[in-house]
## 1
Amino acid sequence: MEGELYNFFKVWLSVLASLIYCHAIGRIVPKGSARFFCLLPILCLFLLLPLNLSSIPFRGMTAFFIAWLANFKLFLYAFGKGPLSSSDNNPSISFGRFLLVACFPIKIKRESHPNGEDKQNPAPSKVHKSIPNYAVKGLLLAMVVRVYNYREFIHPNVILLLYFLHIYFFLELILAMVGAMARALLGLELEPQFNEPYLSTSLQDFWGRRWNLMVTSILRPTAYEPFLRTSAPIIGRRWAPIPAIFGTFVVSAVMHELMFYYVCLEKPTWDITWFFLLHGVCSMVEVTFKKAVAGKWSLPRLISTPLTVGFLLVSGCWLFFPQFLRCKVDVRVLEEYSAVSAFLKNADRAFSYLNRSSNWSIVNTIKD
């Protein structure tokens, strides 16, 4: 465990040094191809750094933070776009803010327009959740991990459902902790990363407004908008979002396959890609139908929410979550949790021993 913590420290020290270089390049080299080629070695380095970690949680979260989110942000930064660049909404970005926004999954809340809506990224009203909300989810996550010990007595489909709960609770808690730390350091209001995805009324609502909103916000300028601009002259502005949605799901599929490789370190079966392509096609059909009826008809929430969540669970149990079974992620993660627990217990014993020794030394000094 000590060796893994040392590797983790080295990886993130490399990330820090790389981002210092990127910030300096942004001050020296004008946006465009020249800046992109200057940043290209860092983009490649960020793809390799997570492979230096053996712990699944450390490797997986580091890959998500730098190989996906940071690389996409730096790609936008190369061309003077994205959250790392100066803009009308963000006229000057400090060095500290640059580092935090680049390497962590956070998004600074924009100033609202007079009508109370961000016209570029409309979204439903979101509020930060209470501490009891996160406490309950932390307790549920601990219960899910505990249930894994009895997996041989549990139906495989129930195990797949537990994977879904594990991913949701783990991601929301980790991203909330990172967001809270960044909020304290920056002193700014940040966008929440999740918005109760189990209340989704459609696939568009789930992927666009409720699930892992940091990924949604970074895919919009890097995938959706370029596809939209390409499609608009061909099929018109009204229908251009349809192929743009599918193109975005293709990019998301590729990145999720890469994330799964970091987690499992095994040759992909491409089931993850098929999962996102299926959801891309279904989202295209959904948006086409909405445009056709033009708001004249819609399903009640009591029907649309169970249908949406049901479709997500069924398709996930078919294509997405079996990849965890194939890699035996739950078994490996439990072993790592046990190793962490043993490490913390040993550290606590060592600290207690040093504390008692120090107290005895003080007592003996006083007696003398």
Note: Residues 329-367 form the longest helix (39 residues).
## 2
Amino acid sequence: MYASFCNKLDIYPDIPLLERNNHREFLLKGLKTLSQSYQCLDASRPWLCYWIVHSLDLLEYHVSEEHALQIADFLGRCQHPKGGFGGGPGQVPHLAPTYAAVNTLAILATVTEDVFKVLNRSGLYQFLMLMRDEEGAFRMHEGGEVDIRGAYCAASSARLTNMCTKELFSGTAEWIRRCQTYEGGFAGFPGQEAHGGYSFCGLAALVILNQPQLCDIPRLLRWTAMRQMKYEGGFQGRTNKLVDGCYSFWQGAAFPVIHMVLCQEDDLALSASGWMFSQEALQEYVLICCQHPLGGLLDKPGKPRDHYHTCYCLSGLSVAQHFTGGVLAHTCVIGSPNNLLRPVHPVFNLSVDAVLQTSRHFQMEGAPTL
């Protein structure tokens, strides 16, 4: 990979290049057929829809209205009759594919809002209520594990569909606060180890619930900043672990969220020109080390490409390219100007347009009841 990069230096002065066409072809192929190696993801089919459709959206490729309705129809077949989405048709409802399905519909709604017709909104609310426990935490599925992913998946799905009620999230923010560790990051459950994915879930859920002040933001900022490695430029997920391309988003997206929280507190030390990590170094890691020559992105050199890493590498790349500080908003693009992706909303990991359109659509409907 390094030799290939050096050879291109003499030909393309604007490298590193984002290989848009190769990535698009890899993603479009995944919407049609998948190899046998994907059998292990049979219970993650809404996730595959989300990873692929979101990646295409960031690359500014829009599926046709016919294709959007076909994807929505498939997601509708993954929906349980009583509410919530399973990992595939006929599977039990689970908070993770429910989050993925709602996000996918939000993206497709920028093509046609008819995709929302498949969503059983009252059933979704009943499913979310069924998943919460007496402390305000959420189990992933009936009889399943309780962890911070559940709180985020529930909060994100509820916020996008205008269902954030007091009865649904009573005590949730306080439970999330208990997951923050002595290191500063968040664990999946109180008393466990801080982790990049869990930290994103905890912080984003608190923001959705309008209670980010409950956590220790300075400690979280320090822990997250320390996860960007000096040599590679990418992020590790935990202390003393290797860099992984997916944490370009899980860790990288925390910085604009923290920036927003501190800005509301009138923190005068905040930069007016960039996030509190090296945006250039992260872009170089993704563009030089994480692109497969045949399309798709990956964890690190030597690892196989997949749709999960394609989604989160591109999402992190978008975060690193866009500083959205109000009137001071600007872009920071390494390599070719054509590398620029659509801006991503760091809390929902959707394009800003998708979040706004979905929010407007469901604001017309009142909060459902049991």
Note: The beta strands are 297-298, 305-306, 322-323, 330-331, 344-345, 350-351.
## 3
Amino acid sequence: MSWQSFFFFFLTELGIIYIQASVCAAGDSAAYHRSSAYGDDVVIVAAYRTPLCKSKRGGFKDTYADDLLAPVLKALIEKTNLSPSEVGDIVVGTVLAPGSQRASECRMAAFYAGFPETVPIRTVNRQCSSGLQAVADVAAAIKAGIYDIGIGAGLESMTANPMAWEGSVNPRPRVKTMAQAQNCPLPMGVTSENVAQHFSVTRQEQDQAAVESHRKAAAATASGKFREEIIPVATKIFDPKTGDEKPITISVDDGIRPNASVSDQGKLKPVFKKDGTTTAGNSSQVSDGAGAVLLMKRSVAMQKGLPILGVFRFAIFWTRVFYYIQIKLG
């Protein structure tokens, strides 16, 4: 399995956070075993995920959130031969579920996975970058010397917790007179339309990109490229017509459409804007699933003989791009 350098950007009120994880080819981790001067680097030594399934219709439609997270947490420990008690903290990025409920579900998942009650766990919500923020929080804590080993994870059950605004928006006049406040509950589909319009991304280009994405994902699945990172999940599924419960093991993503075509995509209607370009076919699906990575100091990883899959880099810098995007997308 090949690893390449990957970069993440996400917006904050302070500017843009830039995160780089420099990664190496599997089997070439020796290249990252530099001198002891780099022993306090924060490194990733393991990363696993569940399959990603379509919400309400996919393989996890009857699976609770804690049963999604537990298998990947357990895999991190079992596949690295790490004692669960060595983990200093578990941080889980999650968006849609009520905060206190999801925190309890994550705690339950940690117990299912074999972690003792001495290992704390918490959730973090930074919308679409919540899982990434969880990893960043753990990396920062390791860098600060709070602990040497931690887990960053992400969890979502969009079957149980669909995207919706619960309750009413604050009726105060102040909200109605401030465009930025009004835009806070702006649907992502509308944001997609704004970006496409500003950068002149055509419907044809979006449909073509979607088809290529499905083609590549199907090819990667067929060749086994995802096999090492996916943890099969034993669960159950209910037939709403008969009421029968059937045990099932989910081991592959069920949202990939290998036969997708540009002509079929062109038949779909825009969802968020009458004359728009964003459709159900060229948008990301709503999914159920979980993933987690194990981070630690380089010196600890070397001592334990664990492979170093990536080195975590983190920086915050000011840029006009934040202001520009905020204005244009609002």
Note: The two ends are 41 Å apart (CA to CA).
## 4
Amino acid sequence: MADSSDSVSVDMETIYLGGKEHIIRTGRGSVSVIVYGDQEKPPLITYPDLALNHMLCFQGLFFCPEAASLLLHNFCVYHISPPGHELGAAAICSDDPIPSVDDLCDQILEVLNYFRAYILTLFAVRLPVNFLDYFRHIKRRFTAMFDRKLHFFISQMKYRDRVTGLILVSPLCKAPSWTEWFYNKLMSNLLYYYGMCGLLKECLLQRFFSKDVRGNPEIPESDIVQACRKLLDERQSINVWRYLQAIDKRHDITDGLKKLKCRTLIFVGDSSPFHSEALHMTGKLDRRYSALVEVQVCGSMVAEEQPHAMLIPMEYFLMGYGLYRPSQFTGSPRSPLSPSCIAPELLSPESMGLKLKPIKTRVSSHGE
């Protein structure tokens, strides 16, 4: 069990709008965790994409009043940053070993174990048989919302029992294709030799956003793209390079996806470079527990480009766990929890800008 000497807790309320930053020392280096909300509530974990942090990956969603009321009413949110991706991060020493995806997954587990020392009754950890009786009173598990890479923290079979639900945004489950490998190699060389140069930023922006928000000579860039450019200027190139090396050396986990029994909700923009990966992953998951939402005119960062497109699917997803929006918000005309106030035609996928691939259910005959 961790004690206070294992971490430094720094109050960052001014910067993080009510959240608190914890610097957790793990066996694979220190990691920043921003905690929002009441720690007596079930935990919800987030993890951002390459070169980003929680503020740019999830800010659009959490600043949406309906989403904030749903998530913060039901969860305590733990935003975990990849090593060296927190605000104000210093450059990681070049002599430090480059982490693998497995190392990053184990690092997340150490973070979760650290907070278990203080919120033990909020975990439903399936431990070895001799511990199960002692922990039989634990009812609640982690719900995870991962953006992109670290979904294999769950899909790697050794950790899947730590999570009851997954919300994945433009996820990957296969090893890099030759096209992605070449693209990653280009970015890796740019980072290594030139740092966060203009060409590299353009590569990352194409990775994150649809062309509609990136702008053109006639239409200026959107605010979120401009904010992303500013954030990228502040990144330590060596830290981004190290994270990219881990991503580029990931292995294929397709064969294990059928064993993943927690409910999984996948979002992907139809303009995302990783759209086909999300379709592939959805096809390999057990259809009884998974659903895909394709968001039209959107890139990889659905939570920033189209946060309102996530509301209805997320609310119905969380209803399966008995989680609802607080009653004072249900009267909102934009609240998906009051469908009787919404004309039925407005709930069509086309009206929401979505192409929904819902969970298919049927009554099995005894002869099957």
Note: Residues 319 and 325 are 9 Å apart (CA to CA).
